[in-house]
Each structure stands twice: as C-alpha cells, then as structure tokens.
Specification:
By secondary structure, this protein is of the alpha+beta class. It folds into three domains: 251 residues, Rossmann fold (3-Layer(aba) Sandwich), CATH 3.40.50; 130 residues, Rossmann fold (3-Layer(aba) Sandwich); 126 residues, Orthogonal Prism (Agglutinin, subunit A). The chain is built from eleven helices and 33 strands. The strands form ten sheets. An eight-stranded mixed β-sheet has the order 4-1-5-8-11-12-15-16, with helices on both faces. Helix 8 links the parallel strand 20 and strand 21. Helix 3 runs antiparallel to helix 6 and helix 10 packs antiparallel against helix 11. It starts with a strand and ends with a strand.
Length: 528
Amino acid sequence: MKIAVINTGGTISCVGSPLAPMTAQRFASASQQLIDPVLRQQFPQLQVDYLTSVTFPESSTQTLDSTNLQPSDWCIMAKGILDHYAAYDGFVVLHGTDSMDFTGTALAFLLNGFDSRGVGTAVLSKPVILTGSQMPLYYQVSADSNDLALNYNTDAFQNVCGAVALAQSGIPEVGVYFQNHLYRGNRAVKTNASEFDAFHSPNYPALAEYGVELSLFNAQWLPGPVHSSVSLDSPEVLAGQQAALAKVSAAIDHYPVMQLNAFPARYSQSPATSFMADLIKAVVGAGAKGVILESYGEGNFPSGNPDQPQQGAIYQALAMANEQGVNIVDCTQVLAGTVNNSAYAAGAWLPEVGALAPADMTPMAALAKLMILMAQGWNRDQVQTLFQTNLAGEMQSVNQLDSRSNTTLLPGQSLSALDGSARLLNDPQRGPLLIGANTTSALWQLPTPPAASALPGRLVMQDDGNLVFYGRDNQPLWATNTGNPAGASSRLLISGRYNAETPSASTLKLQVLNYSANRIAATLYPAA
C-alpha cells in the first residue's frame, strides 16, 4: 500500500514564534524520522512518500498558511494528485484549517469531471483525505538548533495517523478528517477556532469514525466510478481530467466569486438607497462573476423595501447584477438546514433577481463549485443547471433519484424541477404525480391508479435500471420495465421547465437515464 502526503502548510507544519510554515522538504525530513516509524508499526506494508514537488510560488517557503490560499492553489493541489494518481493508493493533504472547507469542495470538482447532465465522465476512485490541526505537529528543540521534536498531547499526531489510515480505506472521494471523524470534504465546516473538535458536517453524517477501532460507514460514501470507462484509474480518463484541470487553472482567476452576509444595515425607500446595495454594485464593478448571499434563516435577504421588494435598492442592485450575467446564489448563514426562500415574503422575491437555489449546500461549497463550473467553460444556462444539481454529494438531490445513492421517493416526498415549475410528488393517497406549480391536475401519473388499500407506496430507482412503484405490502404495482439483469445504474430525472400559460413552450421532461450506457431508457413525460 502506497500513500502520498502533500504538505500545503498550515498550523500542522508550522514552527517558531510566531508560528510560520516550514518548507515541505524540512517537514518531510522530520516526518520520515519521527512519524514514519510509528506508522510502520501499525501498518507494516505501508509506504509513505512526501510529494515535496507540490509547491506554492507566492510563498518563500513554498508552503502556505491556508489564510493566504488562492483559487489557483486549489489547482496546484489537484495537479499534484492527478500527476501522481497512478502511483499511489491514496493521498493525504495537510492543510491549514482556515480555508480547508473551501478546498474540500474545490478538490472534489477538480478531481471529478461531469457532462452537461451532471453524469460523471472522470470519477475519483481513491481516497483523498485532507487534515490539519489546531496545534503544530513539531516544535524546534532550541532557538539555536534546527532540530525538531514531536509535539505531544496535540491533535496533530492523531489527525495524521487517522488520515493515513483512511487513505488506505478505498473510499472514493475527498474527505476532511478531524478529531476522530471523517467528513465529506464538500460538506465540512469549521465550527470551532480553538478546540481540537474543530470541524463538523451539519447536513450530512460522518463517513467514518476512528475510536478504539476504525469504523467505516460505507453506506454514506459516494459510490465511485460506475465502470472503468469513467474511472481515473484509466490512463485515457486521467489524461482527459488533467487537460480539463489545465483549462480551469488557466481560467479560474477570471471568475471571482464574492460571499456577502445579510446583516442589519442602513437603507432608504425614498430615494431608494442602501449601504448593502452599494456593496453589491462595488463587487460587480470590481469584476465579480458570482455573488453568494449568506442570507438569514431559510434564505431571507433584505430587499431595501419591506412592502414592495421590487422598489428596494438591494433588489435593484441584484437585478442589475443578474442582467449583467452575474450568477447569484441564495445560501444561508445558518450552520444547518435547507434553503427554502419561498417560506417567507422576505425571501420569496429572490428568484425574481435570478438567485439560484443551493438546497443544503454550505456557502463555502457554493463559492468553490460556482467558480470552478464557470472556469470549466460551460455557458450560463449550463452553469446554473449544474450548480443546482448534486454532482459530488455536496447537496441534497432535489431533481433526481439515483440507483446507487438516493434510490427511493417515500410517501409525501417529492422531486422538483430546478426552477420549481413542476414537481413529482409521491402522494400517499394517489401514488406518484407530476404536477405543475400552478396547476391542480396531474401532468403524469401511473397509467392504472393503485387501489386505496395498496397505498401509500414508494417509488424506487433500482440499480438494474428499472423504476418500480411498490405498494404498502412491498408488492410491485407498476414498473418502467427497463431493467437489465446485468445491471444498469440509472437516474430518474426531472429536467427543463413547465410553462403553465403556454404548455407548448414547456421543456419539462421526466425521464429514466441509464448512465451506465449513457442513454435515455424511458420518457414518462411528455408522452410519446
């Protein structure tokens, strides 16, 4: 088993007073002497290599406190992993805690590739584990000596050991390991500035826990490549992802994204002026291509006019930004929960200015995802569609069931078109119904309505490619009959939008996509 360690900097590899990052070479030498013998006792077959060639040119030590990391540095890390991907079974990235939650998302989107429907075209097959610490791993023995010693009774040593163990686990995704827990990298959030238990994942459970024994919660993992033709283990796929990364690396600085917190600030209704509106205009004037609103609660943001939002200065500033091509996202500054800006009038106006719905994505994940999607060269409609689609486990799947990770629509649950114009509801009394937002009659339902005694039921996207509705006694009541005994990993997908006023202008579709074979297996709506 071969594991590669990339030291980017951060507290874990800092020494001195005040603390400052040491070079990757010095850190590697100390680790080979002080840490590797301990690791080999636990894992006799383990080989650990330190990739000291992965450096950051803006720093004299060529490592960085994560406070100073730029988006281009995400690309440097991803390139280091991809360039050595074939040679190692897993990767550990040592990273400062200040911006680890941004990097956890960025690497997920730089190491995986997707097509315009969000289907993986280059999929990570090995663990990439980020970790860091609140205390340094080493200390300098004396002021007049360069010798280093292990800093005992800190989180640094335990986090390194846990990250190395999990880098051997085979988990096919980017994770953040901290204080005995492995979290999905694009779900992790720094929640404590001074305690060892510094990271959590408020909206998604842990992927593993390292207590007395290592417990792997593989039911929570991403499923990995659907087959070898999209795996990074394939030299052709790897080369394609390296080329895609080079494209992003060259473009990412041209797509800056700004986070803007909702906060109590001055506004006037007549004339329509606002301090926050001035900030938005300034950000757009400075070249921002995206704005992540960190709203209150379920997605409420001040408009500048409580009674007539359209007349408010903030509304108008965001509307102008949207017209100029800036992508606006309505996140929440609350740690846990899902955005639902239609719940209150104070947020219901945001879709009118083009605000995208991130479900339960963190603001850090939203920033990194949006920036990378734009740098990949998608057009604006594609960026907005992909942004609101669950690509790498960073958010709830609002518009699809997936046979390998999100299989079942239970009674009372629903899927939704990304613009909210239609939804597929599993009605407890009628079964699955496709309903337009402003309509009462079903656009699609089961050809033969189930008997009341058979309901409620559940709609299941099976991994053989068959979409099946099971009754309350677990008997199949209806199926698309698209199953393949050899397997056909598939998605039930709502795409497009429904136009209630002009149905002929609708682009709404309800389809079963067999992504193993990259073909539409069934179209439920519109009818053929």
